[in-house]
Amino acid sequence: MTDKPVILFGGKGGVGKTTCSAAVAACCAAAGEKTIVVTSDMTPSLSDIFEETIGDTIKQIDQNLSAVEISQEAIVARWKQRFSRDFYDILSQLIDVDALDGESRHQLLDYIGSAPSLREETMLDLIVDMVEEGNYERVIWDTAPAGETLNLLDMPRSIRKHLRAGAKVFEGLDKIGKQLIGRRSIADTMDEWIMLSDKLARFIHDKTTFVIVANPEALVVKHVIRLMKTLADYDLPVHGMVVNCIIENADSDTLRAMCRNQQEHLSELRSLADGRPVALLPRSPREITGRKALRIAGEALCRQLGIAR
Fold first, then answer.
1. Coil, strand, or helix at residue 38?
2. What are the distances in angstroms from CA 92 to CA 15, 99, 183?
3. Which CATH architecture has domain 6-77+112-305?
4. Do the Cβ atoms of 211 and 248 come closer than 8 Å?
5. Main-chain dihedrals φ then ψ at residue 157, nearest 5 degrees
6. Pair 288, 19: CB distance under 8 Å
7. Rounded to an integer, what distance in angstroms lies between the CA atom of residue 223 and that of residue 206?
8. Who's near 75: CB < 8 A, 6+ residues apart?
9. What span, in angstroms and rounded, lies between the C-alpha atoms of 294 and 27?
10. Nearest Cα to Cα of residue 50 among 25, 15, 28, 75
11. Of 27, 70, 179, 180, which one's alpha carbon is 20 to 30 angstroms from that of 262?
């Protein structure tokens, strides 16, 4: 059983990350853990899978289960709340922001807040708050397709490097009197951002673990090879793997051939898991949707992965 409060489900697009995330969340909640499932995919499908309207405000699905589909608009709004004052102070020292009309200032902050690295930092900041506020024992994170997720996980390191360089530059501007009276210097503001990035980096390593979702297909196996290597390079913890769409009843020549092919790729995936738990999710004649079906699938996944209590 993992004691990490945040479990990230990631992998190639279309392998079933959202279904697996929702199923495990339903199981954790049924086991008595206060659980929230969060998707940061820009084309979310949690509402379809739970058969309930969710959206970008937290929706309680069951007694111990909540869900939220984080939209770009919600991320920008949170960024404005948390960081726009700092950016306004910095911009005020570089350009005459007060001379801009209200709409121009609003558009400027919207533009800055939509930058990928800032969006990703704000997303991580939101997840940290969910854990630290103590409202949830388990956060199940349905991440975007793997390339975007790895950018997000690398963000604290890259933005910290950039900020440290920037802090040195702006420290010089502060010394020659560019700071505004009664406001923090630019270097001080950037130092605070560096500390936040350090905190997010520690959180990723200390409080999260990764579950890779895959299908037993050649292209997906190649993707998993690259993903496992990248996660190892970043020293990110991997708890285990879900292999989805396993054919169980091969009652035709075509299905038997597909099954043999799957077994070869399944063997490769087990090898890549390197002793970590591998959960198998059979191909279902119907899509897994609704709380009851999700809970049943989640019980099987949690048992094989050793997740729920």
1. strand
2. 47, 10, 10
3. 3-Layer(aba) Sandwich (3.40)
4. no
5. -70, -45
6. yes
7. 26
8. 113, 119, 122, 123, 126
9. 8
10. 25
11. 27
